[in-house]
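quick q for whoever's on today - can somebody do inverse folding on this one?? i tried earlier but teh output was garbage lol. tokens:
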């Protein structure tokens, strides 16, 4: 198996501050000159899924989105990630929040072992800019969603960004994949069958919310 980049002090620190909204906002402002508030606000979509619905969260990371899942919610929540260390942290977070019915799955975002047309909500937080095939990950989300199902996510994008942000965001370097522009992300969504997304932009961060076109 490939090296787990999050089994490291960086992975521990990243997981720690992403769970703490105020600290996360300070770090995003200091490093990226951006506001991550829309990320945390978008988690309200979890509470809008009706009983017996299915939510897929990939990559789930250490489980920050679990804050929006009620312990008594009668939904199926699938938390998928390729990082064993992140899945381990997410399991601990679920236990601490009293969430007993979360299914944890080790999976690549382009090949999630779930049936097609089964999810009501797909969460794609902070993954597209890391993936080697971001368009394929969006295609997989489309495969899994029911017609009319909702995709909510966030990612880093290129252009327009400042010189400092450009030096930090280096495509195909370290943990980054090819990294798209906002126009490219919107193009991938359209090609996968999604409606034009509702977007918010803060510095190099793109927040998007869209639904799969009804078949």
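ok took a stab at it. sequence:
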């Amino acid at each position: 198996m490939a090296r787990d980049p999050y089994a490291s002090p960086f992975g521990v620190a990243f997981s720690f501050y992403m769970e703490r909204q105020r600290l996360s906002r300070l770090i995003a402002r200091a490093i990226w000159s951006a506001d991550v508030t829309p990320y945390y606000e978008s988690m309200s979509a979890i509470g809008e899924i009706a009983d017996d619905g299915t939510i897929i969260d990939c990559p789930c990371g250490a489980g920050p989105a679990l804050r929006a899942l009620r312990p008594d919610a009668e939904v199926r929540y699938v938390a998928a990630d390729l990082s064993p260390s992140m899945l381990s942290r997410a399991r601990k977070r679920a236990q601490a929040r009293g969430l007993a019915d979360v299914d944890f799955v080790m999976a690549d975002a382009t090949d999630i072992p779930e049936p097609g047309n089964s999810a009501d909500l797909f969460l794609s937080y902070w993954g597209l800019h890391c993936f080697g095939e971001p368009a394929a990950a969006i295609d997989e989300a489309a495969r899994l969603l029911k017609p009319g199902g909702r995709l909510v996510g966030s990612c880093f994008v290129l252009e327009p960004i400042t010189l400092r942000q450009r030096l930090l965001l280096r495509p195909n370097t370290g943990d980054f994949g090819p990294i798209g522009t906002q126009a490219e992300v919107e193009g991938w969504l359209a090609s996968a069958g999604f409606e034009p997304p509702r977007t918010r932009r803060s510095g190099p961060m793109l927040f998007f919310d869209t639904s799969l076109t009804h078949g």
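fwiw The mean pLDDT is 95. also The CA atoms of residues 3 and 83 lie 9 Å apart. so keep that in mind when u check it
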